[in-house]
């Protein structure tokens, strides 16, 4: 699956280099393209394909600019081209956006001269149309929130030296604010702020819009109904991030503890599937008393398989991503712990290799419920057809993965593990906290990329 993008912004000294460094710390949220925009009388944008280091040449960034925003992308709409990379800038505004606008195809019908098929360009046009009609940035963004459905955490830079940061009223995606010295910063995750030597001050609240300028910060609120993405806790976010006061690491540990308590496995060793499965496995081991062994090694230069833009690439990454420590596994009954199973690419590959390494039994326990429904709020499982659990029951999946036993957490257990009840669980339950009704129509948000059919 593909993860949610990452956004960052800074107002103050070294704004563009701080944004660049925060993007590197958010690389796990998007690995297709990256970019930085800053203000130096006009809006300048540098972006490219690939990881941050490759996409943006740090020596081209302005050392003087005091206003900057940036983005790492994994596409949920459109495709993986340079034109669709972010930030998207029209000369007066630059936008970096994490999420998906579920009704963007409808909004698109009202707009002219679009150059891409992304939801991002639709946001940019809608907001700049409101600005042209004389609305202020805050009014334009609040009006946008009234017509938009879906999940969005976004940052926006304008020519007046204002940076807006907006977390949608449902709070699907995280967004935090902090300080690095005297510079105000915004990032998708608290860990990115801390990574660059800053202090994460607080989450931007669901439905909260901040306008940052040299004069300080203004905050506006729109009516909210919170359903933060449970998948951020399960897989997406870094374990050293804290979202809405809940530590991602502690949530994953607890998911593992509940998995051990309610879904035990007759194993002699617990083997984490790196990377995101690791805290879950450590919780599982602690609760079950079964020792944890690092039987799988994740290659240092590997990418995240879920966030690759095609099935071919996802498979290739899953195949090349791991080494197997035979000495830790040989002759043992193994329980593999992963945070999630989406298409089954990772586990199908790994079960085979763990058996080849001499495991006598291979059990699998998963720190989330079966993913059975598409997401329209910023994570790329756009159609049911590609989701393993959408068409197979537990036994069929166990056969497909060739495991001795398989089990998942329930939705109730997942919410207990995270310690929040105000979570979105639509991809597990089919209950969508959206204004409109998209699921049954299986709208194709890939804009015809066509790799996955409902
Ligand atoms: O069932 P699948 O379709 O294979 O998808 C699920 C896998 O993808 C994710 O890992 P990913 O490789 O993206 O990143 P990670 O290294 O952070 O775990 C997730 O942690 C699972 O391991
Ligand atoms: N993962 C994301 O947040 C994607 C942002 C936006 N929908 C895009 O496709 O570029
Ligand atoms: S459907 Fe799943 S991935 Fe999408 S926002 Fe809800 S919990 Fe997150
Ligand atoms: Mg993984």
UniProtKB/TrEMBL annotation:
Catalytic activity: 5-phospho-beta-D-ribosylamine + L-glutamate + diphosphate = 5-phospho-alpha-D-ribose 1-diphosphate + L-glutamine + H2O
Active site: 5
Protein residues bound to [4Fe-4S] cluster: 229, 375, 424, 427
Organism: Sulfodiicoccus acidiphilus
Record's keyword annotation contains Transferase: yes
Keywords, sorted A to Z: 4Fe-4S, Glutamine amidotransferase, Glycosyltransferase, Iron, Iron-sulfur, Magnesium, Metal-binding, Purine biosynthesis, Transferase
Parts forming coiled coils: none
Cofactor remark: Binds 1 [4Fe-4S] cluster per subunit.
Domain Glutamine amidotransferase type-2: 5-215
Record has Manganese as a keyword: no
SUPFAM superfamilies recorded: N-terminal nucleophile aminohydrolases (Ntn hydrolases) (SSF56235), PRTase-like (SSF53271)
Listed pathway(s): Purine metabolism; IMP biosynthesis via de novo pathway; N(1)-(5-phospho-D-ribosyl)glycinamide from 5-phospho-alpha-D-ribose 1-diphosphate: step 1/2
The EC number(s) this enzyme carries: 2.4.2.14
Residues reported in the UniProt entry to bind Mg(2+): 276, 338-339
PROSITE patterns: GATASE_TYPE_2
Function noted in UniProt: Catalyzes the formation of phosphoribosylamine from phosphoribosylpyrophosphate (PRPP) and glutamine.
Family matches, as Gene3D superfamilies: 3.40.50.2020, Glutamine Phosphoribosylpyrophosphate, subunit 1, domain 1 (3.60.20.10)
Record protein name field: Amidophosphoribosyltransferase
Family: In the C-terminal section; belongs to the purine/pyrimidine phosphoribosyltransferase family.
GO molecular function: 4 iron, 4 sulfur cluster binding; amidophosphoribosyltransferase activity; magnesium ion binding
Classification via InterPro entries: GATase_2_dom, Ntn_hydrolases_N, PRTase-like, PRTase_dom, PurF
GO biological process, one term: 'de novo' IMP biosynthetic process
Cofactor(s) essential for the protein: [4Fe-4S] cluster; Mg(2+)
PANTHER family documented for this protein: AMIDOPHOSPHORIBOSYLTRANSFERASE
Enzyme class per UniProt: transferase
